[in-house]
Amino acid sequence: MKEDSLELVRKAFRKYYFYKFDAEIRDISRREFGYATFDNKIIRHLSFKSIDELRALLIREIPADAYISNAYYTNPTAEMDLKGWLYADLIFDIDIKDIPLTCTDNHKIGICSNCKRIERSQICSNCNSNIKEVNIPCKNCIDVGKEQVRRLLDIINDLGSFDIKIYFSGNNGFHVHIYDEELSSIDSDARREVLDYVTGRGIMPEIFGIRKDKNDPSIIKRVINAKKGWKGRIIKYMLNKKDEDSLFRSLIRKQYQKFSKELEDIVKMFSAYSVDPVVTIDTHRIFRLQNSLSSKSGLAKIIVDNIDDFNPFNDASLIDDELVSVYVYNASEFILKDNIFGPYDNTKVELPLYAAVYLICKGLAEAVT
What we know:
Blueprint: H1 3-19, E1 33-36, E2 42-46, H2 51-61, E3 65-69, E4 71-73, E5 85-88, E6 90-95, H3 104-107, E7 108-112, E8 131-135, H4 139-156, E9 163-168, E10 173-179, H5 181-184, H6 188-199, H7 217-224, H8 229-239, H9 244-252, H10 256-270, H11 277-281, E11 286-288, H12 312-315, E12 323-331, E13 334-336, E14 339-341, E15 344-352, H13 353-361, E16 365-367
Antiparallel strand pairs: 1-2, 1-3, 3-11, 4-5, 6-10, 7-8, 9-10, 12-15, 12-16, 13-14
């Protein structure tokens, strides 16, 4: 990012934090905060007594990205082993870029980190610099991510009733926060068990009475009546195609390997398979601060009240709309605040500030003075 572009983005971020930023943060004085600067420095082990103190830092420092811990500490400003860990919210991270999608090639761009040449190779043919892969997510990408959130919520419901908050991550995914006294106290091993459950890991044919040697009709008969949990979910799907008697006869004859593959396919249809496993089991992790801006997009991490109606390209685009001039190297068509932009190819254009910041943060444009 060139100096003029950096200045434009920093001014836009500062104005947002000054006029629009607010957040409800649980036990703010027990949380660790941190931020990344625009020159890639990481500042951690910060603590604030109030949202006003936090807002003052955001306005003063204008971070590229701001973070908050999922953990609560007796001394959040201390080094990690001296913080005094109390408990940590259970958080699931769904990153859309990790989901194989057919639409990705339509809006994925390879751009040289140095000369900004558009390339399909990993090394620039013009200056031998590395190629940066840039993705401008489309509506289909977001819809797939939303479906993963729905699946996650459905499976979590198997475990009980919890206070759950869904957030758009600010770039290309969703964070699902679970606030529960019992779940917040569990360690990484127990969180891994929860992770295994929501992703459907460990669901074996034996659970359904299908064995490598001889299938067990008594287990098959019992499991066909399952109504809850993974058993109920899978049996309900199977009963869409057969009645109970037909399903029983079919399962009795099932070969282990064949059923194992069928089971794997069914589990993938219902599981939240895209949840990042590293994030879920980490009890000391820092996450993007709610209502803060992402340096990867200029969009905000905001709460999602209704996953079906949510549109991040409108709802999370909170930067002002004053017109500015930018030079766009390359960009596929995108929509922000119900306005269609692009496609662009090596052209100077006047854009609303929110769209200009979006492209600059993606590395696809620079400010023109």
